[in-house]
Amino acid sequence: MSISNDRKVDEQLVTASLAGDEAAFAQLVRRYQRRLTAFLTQLVGDLELARELTQEAFIRAWSALERYDPSYRFSTWLFRIGHNLGIDHLRRRRLQTVPLVRQDRDGDEVEVVLPEKGKDPFGHLKNAELAQALRTAIHDLRPEYKELVLLRHFGGLSYQDIADMKDMPLGTVKNKLFRAHSVLRTALADFL
Amino acid sequence: MNRDCKLLQQALVEVAGVVDRLDDGYQEHLRSCETCRAVVAEELALVRLLDEAAPPEDIALQEQILLTLAERRLRRRWLAAVPVAASLAFAFLGVTLLGGIPAGGLAASIPAWSGGGLVALIQSCGNFLTALAAAGGVLANLITMPWSVAAAAAGLSGMAGLIFLSRRWKYRPVWSARS
Ligand SMILES: [Zn+2]
Predict the structure, then answer these.
(1) Is A44 helix (H, G, I), strand (E, B) or coil?
(2) What are the boundaries of each domain within chain B?
(3) Which pLDDT score, from 0 to 100, does residue B100 have?
(4) Nearest to residue A173, comparing CAs of A183, A187, A185, A162?
């Protein structure tokens, strides 16, 4: 489905939802659940928590649907809600715990994320070595690259959607994703 | 990396490694540049890896979300009915206090509340127009009768509540108006 077609379907579903069509919002949930959970899983590093945040994001979107600004895509708006929930959670967690740190390739200190069993974002991958490599590669990305990679590849957002969501020029999004991919290709060279 | 290679590789990331989606100019560069051809293969593999890394569709979660939404919808309907019911009750109470009940209005029957009082209430419900007419007759005594003042206040606040709610709930087609 093309992006404009996709957008039209979203618009129709939102209009129907606002008119009280329950099935229409259910369809929006089915269209975006996987992508939103995938994005949040990487953002917070915990599959179970990401599922909870996904649910909360959909409920907030439903509750605030009347206030939704249709000049943005529904997906952009939904991901912004999910993103804010994830960031709030990370902030709270940072206040409550003392993070384990290690040094990355540039000698900077980065937080060590130790996923619990059943919560591991890469738990569904059969190749444990690949899972570990991906975990490290994504975790080691600079924060501004990481966020864009998550929105693009896990959230499935277009460059324009990301630019809208992050309030960033399209050229900057392109450039940062290009650099992020160069870093990832190097980090994951053994698996490419 | 020269400028052409950088531009091509940037475009390549944008099209997720799918060369067919590149412009002709880029395709031409690709035919003559071994470095960029190697990047194409790596980019395709990277995108595939990232796709695999996303957890699969979660039907159980979708159902859980829809169930929670159904509960919220129900709760919202109940909550929405409360102010309307309260406004109606206030308006009705005001009118009945003003004389909708035979033999001096409901106020008179309150101290001796019994099965008979309930019958009187039911009768007054069925005779709403009579109650309104009776209310008109009592208006002349409004200033001197505290019960009547209270009744008028209750009736008016109930009516005001209904008007407020009807205005607030007027459908606003936010989406269609903008698009
Ligand atoms: Zn080249």
Answers:
(1) helix
(2) 1-53, 80-168
(3) 60
(4) A162
Q: Which two tokens stand for residue A64?
A: 């605030």
Alpha-carbon distance of B62 to B67, in angstroms, equals 9
Separation in Å, CA A175 to CA A162, A170, A179, B11, B160: 13, 9, 6, 10, 59
For residue A169, the one-letter residue type is P
User: Of the candidates B54, B13, B16, B52, which has an alpha carbon nearest to the alpha carbon of residue A32?
Assistant: B54
Nearest to A82 by CA among A130, A34, A133, A122: A34
Report residue A4 as tokens: 């404009």
For each of the domains in chain A, give its residue range(s) and CATH number, in order of start. 1-100 (1.10.1740.10), 118-192 (1.10.10.10)
What residues have CB less than 8 Å from A57, skipping those under 6 apart? A36, A40, A78, A81, A82, A85
Residue A86 predicted with pLDDT over 70: yes
10 Å Cβ neighbour count for A129?
A: 10
pTM of the predicted protein model: 0.70
Beta carbons within 8 Å of A85's beta carbon, 6+ residues apart:
A40, A53, A56, A57, A60
Mean pLDDT of all residues belonging to chain B? 77
ipTM: 0.83
A59 closest CB neighbour out of B45, B49, B68: B68
Q: Do B9 and A178 touch (CB under 8 A)?
A: yes
Q: What is the pLDDT of residue B174?
A: 37
B62 contact residues in A (CB cutoff 8 A): 29-30, 33
Q: What is the pLDDT of residues A8-43, one digit of tens each?
A: 899 999 999 999 899 999 999 999 999 999 999 999
Nearest CA in chain A to B70: A22
Instruction: Locate B152 and state its tokens.
Output: 């008028």
CB contact under 8 A, B61 and A33: yes
